[in-house]
Amino acid sequence: MLQNQYEEVQQRIEAACRRCGRDRSEVTLVAVSKTKPVEMLEEVYGLGERNFGENKVQELTGKYEAMPKDIHWHMIGHLQRNKVKYIVDKVELIHSVDSLRLARTISEEAGKHGCTAHILLEVNVAEEESKFGVTVEEAPKLAEEISLLPNIQIEGLMTIAPFVENPEENRPVFKKLKKLSVDIADKNINNVTMAVLSMGMTNDYEVAIEEGATMVRVGTAIFGARNYGITN
Ligand SMILES: *Cc1c(COP(=O)(O)O)cnc(C)c1O
Fold first, then answer.
1. Where are the beta strands (DSSP E) in 123-219?
2. Which atom of ligand 1 is nearest to the CA of 76?
3. Distance between CA atoms of 116 and 123, rounded to whole angstroms?
Protein backbone atom coordinates (compact mmCIF):
# COMPACT_ATOMS: atom_id res chain seq x y z
CA MET A 1 0.00 0.00 0.00
CA LEU A 2 2.83 2.40 0.82
CA GLN A 3 4.94 1.21 -2.07
CA ASN A 4 3.61 3.69 -4.65
CA GLN A 5 4.05 6.67 -2.33
CA TYR A 6 7.54 5.58 -1.31
CA GLU A 7 8.61 5.02 -4.90
CA GLU A 8 7.20 8.37 -5.98
CA VAL A 9 9.26 10.14 -3.31
CA GLN A 10 12.37 8.25 -4.46
CA GLN A 11 11.69 9.23 -8.07
CA ARG A 12 11.17 12.89 -7.15
CA ILE A 13 14.44 12.92 -5.21
CA GLU A 14 16.20 11.44 -8.20
CA ALA A 15 14.64 13.97 -10.57
CA ALA A 16 15.57 16.88 -8.29
CA CYS A 17 19.17 15.63 -8.17
CA ARG A 18 19.26 15.33 -11.94
CA ARG A 19 17.88 18.87 -12.43
CA CYS A 20 20.74 20.39 -10.45
CA GLY A 21 23.50 18.01 -11.51
CA ARG A 22 23.87 16.24 -8.19
CA ASP A 23 24.49 12.55 -7.68
CA ARG A 24 21.59 10.70 -6.04
CA SER A 25 24.02 9.29 -3.45
CA GLU A 26 24.54 12.80 -2.04
CA VAL A 27 21.01 12.88 -0.63
CA THR A 28 19.74 10.66 2.20
CA LEU A 29 16.02 10.18 2.61
CA VAL A 30 14.89 10.04 6.23
CA ALA A 31 11.43 8.47 6.42
CA VAL A 32 9.63 10.37 9.19
CA SER A 33 7.46 7.76 10.87
CA LYS A 34 6.19 9.68 13.93
CA THR A 35 2.66 8.69 15.04
CA LYS A 36 2.68 5.75 12.58
CA PRO A 37 2.38 2.11 13.71
CA VAL A 38 5.28 -0.35 13.53
CA GLU A 39 3.49 -2.30 10.75
CA MET A 40 3.83 0.71 8.45
CA LEU A 41 7.51 1.09 9.28
CA GLU A 42 8.02 -2.60 8.55
CA GLU A 43 6.42 -2.17 5.16
CA VAL A 44 8.74 0.71 4.25
CA TYR A 45 11.69 -1.21 5.70
CA GLY A 46 10.72 -4.02 3.35
CA LEU A 47 11.05 -1.62 0.43
CA GLY A 48 14.65 -1.02 1.43
CA GLU A 49 14.42 2.05 3.67
CA ARG A 50 16.93 2.10 6.55
CA ASN A 51 16.70 5.69 7.84
CA PHE A 52 13.74 6.54 10.06
CA GLY A 53 13.02 9.79 11.89
CA GLU A 54 11.05 10.23 15.11
CA ASN A 55 10.38 13.31 17.23
CA LYS A 56 9.46 11.77 20.60
CA VAL A 57 11.89 9.84 22.81
CA GLN A 58 9.39 7.26 24.06
CA GLU A 59 8.10 6.51 20.60
CA LEU A 60 11.62 6.23 19.21
CA THR A 61 12.78 3.78 21.89
CA GLY A 62 9.63 1.68 21.49
CA LYS A 63 10.11 1.38 17.75
CA TYR A 64 13.84 0.82 18.24
CA GLU A 65 13.03 -2.28 20.29
CA ALA A 66 10.42 -3.51 17.82
CA MET A 67 12.34 -3.02 14.57
CA PRO A 68 15.45 -4.66 13.05
CA LYS A 69 18.81 -3.50 14.34
CA ASP A 70 20.27 -2.30 11.03
CA ILE A 71 18.06 0.81 11.05
CA HIS A 72 19.60 4.27 11.40
CA TRP A 73 17.38 6.24 13.78
CA HIS A 74 17.20 10.02 13.58
CA MET A 75 15.98 12.14 16.49
CA ILE A 76 14.40 15.12 14.76
CA GLY A 77 12.24 16.62 17.52
CA HIS A 78 12.91 18.92 20.44
CA LEU A 79 14.89 16.97 23.03
CA GLN A 80 14.59 17.42 26.80
CA ARG A 81 17.84 17.03 28.69
CA ASN A 82 16.44 14.46 31.13
CA LYS A 83 15.58 12.14 28.23
CA VAL A 84 18.93 12.22 26.43
CA LYS A 85 20.08 9.11 28.29
CA TYR A 86 17.37 6.97 26.71
CA ILE A 87 18.46 7.59 23.12
CA VAL A 88 22.09 8.67 23.04
CA ASP A 89 23.40 5.18 22.20
CA LYS A 90 20.50 4.31 19.87
CA VAL A 91 20.43 7.11 17.33
CA GLU A 92 22.62 7.75 14.33
CA LEU A 93 22.06 11.49 14.45
CA ILE A 94 20.35 14.05 16.67
CA HIS A 95 19.08 16.81 14.35
CA SER A 96 17.74 19.18 16.98
CA VAL A 97 20.52 20.59 19.18
CA ASP A 98 20.02 24.27 19.86
CA SER A 99 21.74 25.03 23.17
CA LEU A 100 25.05 24.50 24.93
CA ARG A 101 23.16 23.09 27.93
CA LEU A 102 21.60 20.34 25.83
CA ALA A 103 24.93 19.64 24.11
CA ARG A 104 26.64 19.30 27.52
CA THR A 105 24.10 16.70 28.61
CA ILE A 106 24.49 14.80 25.34
CA SER A 107 28.28 14.90 25.78
CA GLU A 108 28.04 13.56 29.35
CA GLU A 109 25.56 10.81 28.51
CA ALA A 110 27.55 9.73 25.44
CA GLY A 111 30.61 9.46 27.70
CA LYS A 112 28.70 7.24 30.13
CA HIS A 113 27.62 4.98 27.26
CA GLY A 114 31.11 4.94 25.74
CA CYS A 115 29.96 6.36 22.43
CA THR A 116 30.29 9.54 20.38
CA ALA A 117 27.08 11.44 19.69
CA HIS A 118 26.67 12.85 16.19
CA ILE A 119 24.55 15.97 16.11
CA LEU A 120 23.27 18.79 13.94
CA LEU A 121 22.64 22.35 15.09
CA GLU A 122 19.03 23.33 14.60
CA VAL A 123 18.82 26.80 13.11
CA ASN A 124 15.61 28.82 13.08
CA VAL A 125 16.50 30.50 9.80
CA ALA A 126 13.12 32.14 9.30
CA GLU A 127 13.08 33.28 12.96
CA GLU A 128 9.57 31.98 13.56
CA GLU A 129 8.57 32.47 17.19
CA SER A 130 6.93 29.06 17.46
CA LYS A 131 10.07 27.18 16.45
CA PHE A 132 13.10 25.93 18.32
CA GLY A 133 16.61 26.56 17.04
CA VAL A 134 19.32 29.19 17.26
CA THR A 135 19.45 32.18 14.97
CA VAL A 136 21.83 32.34 12.01
CA GLU A 137 23.88 34.89 13.96
CA GLU A 138 24.18 32.68 17.07
CA ALA A 139 25.09 29.46 15.26
CA PRO A 140 28.87 29.92 14.70
CA LYS A 141 29.51 30.72 18.37
CA LEU A 142 27.45 27.73 19.51
CA ALA A 143 29.40 25.49 17.12
CA GLU A 144 32.69 26.69 18.63
CA GLU A 145 31.47 26.13 22.20
CA ILE A 146 30.14 22.64 21.49
CA SER A 147 33.32 21.71 19.63
CA LEU A 148 35.21 21.86 22.94
CA LEU A 149 33.04 19.15 24.54
CA PRO A 150 34.14 15.49 24.48
CA ASN A 151 32.11 12.61 22.96
CA ILE A 152 30.08 14.87 20.70
CA GLN A 153 30.63 15.69 17.05
CA ILE A 154 28.83 18.35 15.01
CA GLU A 155 28.10 17.01 11.52
CA GLY A 156 26.13 19.92 10.09
CA LEU A 157 22.96 21.98 10.29
CA MET A 158 19.22 21.41 10.30
CA THR A 159 16.29 23.73 9.75
CA ILE A 160 12.52 23.45 9.70
CA ALA A 161 11.28 25.86 7.06
CA PRO A 162 7.95 27.66 7.48
CA PHE A 163 4.74 26.07 6.24
CA VAL A 164 4.02 27.78 2.93
CA GLU A 165 1.63 27.23 0.05
CA ASN A 166 4.30 27.46 -2.61
CA PRO A 167 7.60 25.66 -1.83
CA GLU A 168 9.47 28.29 -3.87
CA GLU A 169 8.84 30.67 -0.96
CA ASN A 170 11.25 28.58 1.13
CA ARG A 171 14.10 28.70 -1.39
CA PRO A 172 15.70 31.74 0.33
CA VAL A 173 15.53 29.89 3.68
CA PHE A 174 17.43 26.91 2.24
CA LYS A 175 19.96 29.21 0.54
CA LYS A 176 20.60 30.91 3.90
CA LEU A 177 21.23 27.61 5.70
CA LYS A 178 23.59 26.49 2.93
CA LYS A 179 25.52 29.76 3.14
CA LEU A 180 25.74 29.47 6.93
CA SER A 181 27.17 25.96 6.61
CA VAL A 182 29.85 27.22 4.21
CA ASP A 183 30.69 30.10 6.57
CA ILE A 184 31.04 27.75 9.55
CA ALA A 185 33.06 25.23 7.52
CA ASP A 186 35.45 28.07 6.57
CA LYS A 187 36.28 28.53 10.24
CA ASN A 188 37.88 25.06 10.33
CA ILE A 189 36.73 24.36 13.87
CA ASN A 190 38.10 21.18 15.43
CA ASN A 191 35.52 18.37 15.67
CA VAL A 192 33.08 20.25 13.44
CA THR A 193 32.22 19.19 9.91
CA MET A 194 29.46 20.69 7.81
CA ALA A 195 28.88 17.52 5.77
CA VAL A 196 25.17 17.31 6.54
CA LEU A 197 22.46 19.78 5.60
CA SER A 198 19.14 18.46 6.90
CA MET A 199 16.41 20.50 5.22
CA GLY A 200 13.24 19.87 3.26
CA MET A 201 10.01 18.07 4.22
CA THR A 202 7.02 16.76 2.26
CA ASN A 203 6.06 20.17 0.90
CA ASP A 204 9.47 21.43 -0.11
CA TYR A 205 12.10 18.67 -0.26
CA GLU A 206 12.68 19.05 -3.99
CA VAL A 207 13.52 22.76 -3.63
CA ALA A 208 15.72 21.89 -0.63
CA ILE A 209 17.67 19.37 -2.73
CA GLU A 210 18.18 21.99 -5.44
CA GLU A 211 19.66 24.26 -2.74
CA GLY A 212 22.05 21.65 -1.36
CA ALA A 213 20.18 19.46 1.14
CA THR A 214 22.05 16.23 1.92
CA MET A 215 19.19 14.91 4.08
CA VAL A 216 15.49 15.36 3.50
CA ARG A 217 12.96 14.45 6.22
CA VAL A 218 9.79 13.21 4.56
CA GLY A 219 6.77 11.95 6.49
CA THR A 220 3.36 12.67 4.96
CA ALA A 221 4.34 11.92 1.35
CA ILE A 222 5.40 8.39 2.39
CA PHE A 223 3.07 7.46 5.26
CA GLY A 224 0.06 9.69 4.60
CA ALA A 225 -1.41 12.41 6.80
CA ARG A 226 -1.01 12.19 10.55
CA ASN A 227 -3.95 11.97 12.95
CA TYR A 228 -3.27 13.75 16.21
CA GLY A 229 -5.33 13.42 19.37
CA ILE A 230 -8.51 11.91 18.05
CA THR A 231 -8.71 9.13 20.63
CA ASN A 232 -7.35 10.95 23.67
C1 LIG B 1 7.13 15.85 11.18
C2 LIG B 1 8.46 16.36 10.77
C3 LIG B 1 8.93 16.19 9.45
C4 LIG B 1 8.11 15.54 8.34
O5 LIG B 1 7.07 16.39 7.95
P6 LIG B 1 6.17 16.05 6.66
O7 LIG B 1 5.62 17.37 6.26
O8 LIG B 1 5.11 15.09 7.11
O9 LIG B 1 7.05 15.47 5.62
C10 LIG B 1 10.20 16.64 9.15
N11 LIG B 1 10.98 17.23 10.08
C12 LIG B 1 10.58 17.42 11.35
C13 LIG B 1 11.48 18.07 12.32
C14 LIG B 1 9.30 16.99 11.74
O15 LIG B 1 8.91 17.19 13.01
1. 152-158, 192-198, 215-218
2. 13
3. 22
Residue nearest to atom 13 of ligand 1 (CA): 76
What are the angstrom distances between the C-alpha of 109 and each of 82, 113, 181, 190?
A: 10, 6, 27, 21
pTM: 0.96
- Residue closest via CA to ligand 1's atom 7 equals 202
Looking at residue 228, its pLDDT comes to 74
Instruction: Output the CA angle 11-44-71, nearest 5 degrees.
Output: 110
Which among 179, 50, 204, 193 has a CA at the least distance from the CA of 120? 193
Measured from the Cβ of residue 67, the count of other Cβ atoms closer than 10 Å reads 16
Quick: pLDDT tens for 91-140.
999 999 999 999 999 999 999 999 999 999 999 999 988 889 999 999 99
Question: Would the CA dihedral through 137, 141, 142, 143 be positive or negative?
Answer: positive
From 167, 155, 173, 154, select the one nearest 203 (Cα to Cα).
Answer: 167
The ligand 1 atom at the shortest distance from the C-alpha of residue 160 is: 13
d(CA 77, CA 56): 6
**What mean pLDDT do residues 138-153 have?**
98
Are 180 and 192 in contact, with CB atoms under 8 Å apart? no
